[in-house]
């Protein structure tokens, strides 16, 4: 590759937020919810310290040497993740989750959608949400499956 050829890179940044939720679907009976979600259906909810890793991708700018300024990414993540989710009851404090079950999968979609509104178009590559050290959801904005 010549020095003038574009080089693509991925850049990741992580944040941690604390929130509580209750896994409960309005489409199911109380008995069905308890059977499906078990202890995570506790009426009083339960909490997590979520870790979110956001990855962007793009050309390395030949002048700045960056895919994106990390300070800008930090500010976007503050607005898209920390402000709406940190120290919140997801089901009661975040309007999105009043109609959507607050699973880690849906949290990843929520974060993706929020970031898409802020980031330059086409730069967002991946959102990882670590609910625990063992449970991780990766969302890349894939198209929905038509049924």
Automatic annotation (TrEMBL):
Pathway: Cofactor biosynthesis; tetrahydrobiopterin biosynthesis; tetrahydrobiopterin from 7,8-dihydroneopterin triphosphate: step 1/3
Cofactor binding summary note: Binds 1 zinc ion per subunit.
A Pfam family the protein falls into: PTPS
Similarity comment text for this entry: Belongs to the PTPS family.
A cellular-component GO term for this protein: mitochondrion
Biological function: Involved in the biosynthesis of tetrahydrobiopterin, an essential cofactor of aromatic amino acid hydroxylases. Catalyzes the transformation of 7,8-dihydroneopterin triphosphate into 6-pyruvoyl tetrahydropterin.
Top-rank EC class of the record's enzyme: lyase
UniProt keyword Zinc, yes or no: yes
A GO BP annotation: tetrahydrobiopterin biosynthetic process
InterPro entries: 6-PTP_synth/QueD, 6-PTP_synth/QueD_sf, PTPS_Cys_AS, PTPS_His_AS
Listed NCBIfam families: 6PTHBS (TIGR00039)
GO molecular function term, any single one: metal ion binding
Residue numbers annotated as active site: 40, 87, 131
Keywords, in A-Z order: Lyase, Metal-binding, Tetrahydrobiopterin biosynthesis, Zinc
Gene3D superfamilies (UniProt xref): 6-pyruvoyl tetrahydropterin synthase/QueD
UniProt cofactor(s): Zn(2+)
Record protein name field: 6-pyruvoyl tetrahydrobiopterin synthase
Leader peptide range in chain numbering: none
This enzyme's EC code(s): 4.2.3.12
Annotated Zn(2+) binding sites: 21, 46, 48
């Amino acid at each position: 590759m010549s020095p003038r050829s574009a080089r693509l890179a991925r850049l990741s940044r992580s944040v941690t937020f604390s929130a509580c939720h209750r896994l409960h679907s309005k489409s199911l009976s109380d008995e069905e919810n308890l059977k499906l979600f078990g202890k995570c259906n506790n009426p009083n909810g339960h909490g997590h310290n979520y870790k979110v890793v956001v990855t962007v991708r793009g050309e390395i700018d030949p002048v700045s040497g960056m895919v994106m300024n990390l300070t800008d990414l930090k500010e976007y993540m503050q607005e898209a993740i920390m402000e709406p989710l940190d120290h919140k009851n997801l089901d009661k404090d975040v309007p999105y989750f009043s109609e959507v079950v607050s699973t880690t999968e849906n949290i990843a979609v929520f974060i993706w959608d929020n970031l898409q509104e802020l980031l330059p178009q086409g730069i967002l590559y991946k959102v990882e949400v670590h609910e625990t050290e063992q449970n991780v959801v990766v969302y890349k904005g894939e198209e929905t499956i038509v049924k």
